[in-house]
Specification:
six-stranded antiparallel beta barrel; OB fold (Dihydrolipoamide Acetyltransferase, E2P); elongated; Elongation Factor Tu (Ef-tu), domain 3; 6 helices; four-stranded antiparallel beta sheet; 4 domains; conserved putative lor/sdh protein from methanococcus maripaludis s2 fold; alpha+beta; 437 residues
Length: 437
Amino acid sequence: MSKKAIIIVVVVVVLAVIVYFNFAMNTTQTTSVQAAEAKSKKLTEQVSASGRIQPQTKVDITAEINGEIISLLVSEGDHVKVGDLLIVLDTVQLRSDVDQAKFAVSEIDARLNGARVALEQAEEEFHRQEKLYEGNLASEIEFKNARYTYLNYKSSHEASQAQFRQAQFRYEQRLDNLSKAKLVAPMPGIITFLDCEVGEIAPAQTAFTQGKTLMRISNLDVFEVEVEVDETEINKIALNQAVDIEVDAFPDTTFPGQVVEIGNTAILEGLGTEDQSTNFKVKVIFQDPNVKIRPGMSATVDVTTDQREDALTIPYSAVVMRSYDMDSLARARETEESDSGGDNQVLAAEDNPEGESEEVEADDKDERKELKGVFVIRDGKARFLVITTGIADQKDIEVVSGVAAGDSVISGPYRVLRSVKDGDAVETEEPSDEQKE
């Protein structure tokens, strides 16, 4: 055989070997997956949220008038009773205002007395002229002049009365402002916040201004945690539900609590942005007092919303959404079982969060449905099963129907779950130490 012929034979053999191995690799290619067994266990569903600890009963002390603080009679941590004097504001200007208002009342009162006397005289003259006119002893002009004079003094007297009431009101208002120069405790408790000092000007809180919180009195007998719960979970929260409270300052310690208030109005944050959220305010109280708890500490509440003693569970990560024509899927499986060597197309397409599309062949695309399910491993292949789910915790979810105890479901990796299809050949791999945890 010539050298050229030998080279040609060698090239053909190499090409044949390459084609064979490529064909063998393509027909036997498998995907490595992580699998978990569907098993029964006690499952507790909880809603978790974080917030700050605060006294259930507290009151912020603010000034109702502007004034310089000339006396501060308490310190942070002090116990106070109802009526205890807390702060005294400068009263020099306030007393001057009271005196001026009092003088104004006296002046207008004197005017009112004069107007009353003039009115009485005008009224007597009017009645005298009226009798004379009726007896034809006085002219009509004299009668009308007496009548007009009486009405004029009557109006003046009524105006003086209104001015007197107005001056009296201003006087009472000045007295009230003077009384507000002394800030007293409206409830018993402890001064848990103090943000003022002698010489500082205390700004007044009005209908248009917030003012400044000078101090806070709190009742430390009962604490609560105020948290915000997402709108998707608020319907699971109910009054008097049991709560486990974890305080960051006390690791490995859980405090029992109870839901006492659920907000009715949504709290909108980041409106119009990608981070937009809709939450509802929930308040939880500590059932057992603890002297070491302090206002402002961070806490996490776990609200137990449901529980199953013997629930069939699978990892939450195993649940996927797929768009399937179930009739075509069934026919594809029947064909595969009768002719394992044929090329079968499973008419399925995944929900791709990145917007990638797949070419799908189906006789009637309108019959395709978005289905919740899992991939179980049967005879080395991934099989999609539609499931109905129940409650869930942070890792596992209850399967009400679709999966049997002992079934091996594909639980990862995430990139595989995004792309795996019904009928794909798979092999299980051992999870890493981090995944085991």
